[in-house]
Design a protein that fits this description.
The protein is α/β, with parallel strands linked by helices. It contains 13 helices and eight strands. β6, α8 and β7 form a beta-alpha-beta unit. α1 crosses α13 and α6 crosses α7. The longest helix has 18 residues. The structure holds adenosine-5'-triphosphate and magnesium ion. The site of adenosine-5'-triphosphate has 19 residues, from α1, β7, α10 and α11.
């Protein structure tokens, strides 16, 4: 079983869109997949038409493994289950900060469902917090969408520094360029600069800025379902294949 997190310390960069499409791609290629929506906004559950769970509270998620497993829902797709978010996930921070060894609680909780899944994807909220520390400790790979702008470069650097300061392995980080607009020269310049600075951290696949991805909110399904042959669909498929190889390699 492998744990793959879609994470960025920056908001609105495409974490959820990526988590939803990668989860679908893993499931469609025969991997038993669980998508955990760790963001109380509940966006990835929304895209899969799975209602938030009333049964979970922040504390129980980490403490009561049976309740955690009971909150997992099936989806419309083969091999794909969803752990929907709950507004009580807001309490994670407080709960985790009170725990001894608070940074490894998530890893322990996920062990409970380890034998049921080949892949567990985590859709994370945007910040560096106790929850994200849990994510960094639990995940085999941290997938980071980066919009090619100067501000994103800064936040990406902060993430690398956080990994270094916490003694976490940098090679766990797999970044890719997100919402890329080919016509913007700033985007091309930033892509060249960042690829140069961090050649091993960036995947080759770039996800373009396209209306198909924006329309996911209306369709409430992954682009890989609604428009697999579109530019966005092909890009997500390529990202999936690249990530799979990077994680296994
Ligand atoms: N490549 C893209 N092209 C166009 N729109 C996109 C693209 N990726 C994401 N979006 C849109 O941008 C918005 C933010 O995307 P998304 O929710 O995936 O980001 P996020 O990083 O998960 O945000 P948050 O930090 O709020 O969780 C959504 O409305 C989404 O449809
Ligand atoms: Mg999100």
């Amino acid at each position: 079983m492998q744990i793959i997190a879609c994470y960025s310390n920056k908001g609105g960069v495409g974490k959820t869109a990526t988590a939803v499409n990668l989860a679908y791609a893993f499931a469609a290629s025969g991997h038993r997949t669980l998508l955990c929506d760790l963001d109380p906004q509940g966006a990835s559950g929304f895209y899969f038409r799975v209602k938030p769970s009333k049964k979970l509270t922040g504390a129980r998620f980490f403490e009561d493994i049976e309740r955690f497993a009971k909150a997992i829902r099936g989806s419309d797709y083969d091999n794909l289950d969803i752990l929907p978010a709950n507004m009580n996930f807001r309490d994670f921070e407080l709960f985790l900060s009170q725990m001894k060894n608070g940074q490894s609680r998530l890893k322990k909780a996920l062990k409970a469902v380890k034998s049921d899944y080949d892949i567990i994807l985590l859709d994370c909220p945007p910040n560096i917090s106790m929850l994200s520390e849990n994510v960094f400790h639990a995940a085999d790979a941290v997938i980071v969408p980066v919009i090619p702008t100067t501000l994103s470069q800064r936040t990406f650097r902060q993430l690398l520094e956080f990994f270094r300061d916490s003694g976490l392995p940098r090679k766990r980080i797999h970044a890719f360029f997100s919402m890329v607009q080919g016509i913007k020269s700033l985007h091309s310049e930033m892509i060249a600069e960042m690829t140069d600075a961090y050649p091993e951290r960036f995947a080759q696949t770039k996800i373009p800025f396209t209306s198909e991805i924006e329309r996911m909110g209306l369709a409430r399904a992954p682009v890989l379902v609604t428009a697999p042959g579109s530019r966005a669909g092909k890009a997500y498929q390529a990202l999936f294949e690249e990530i799979k190889e990077r994680v296994n390699g």
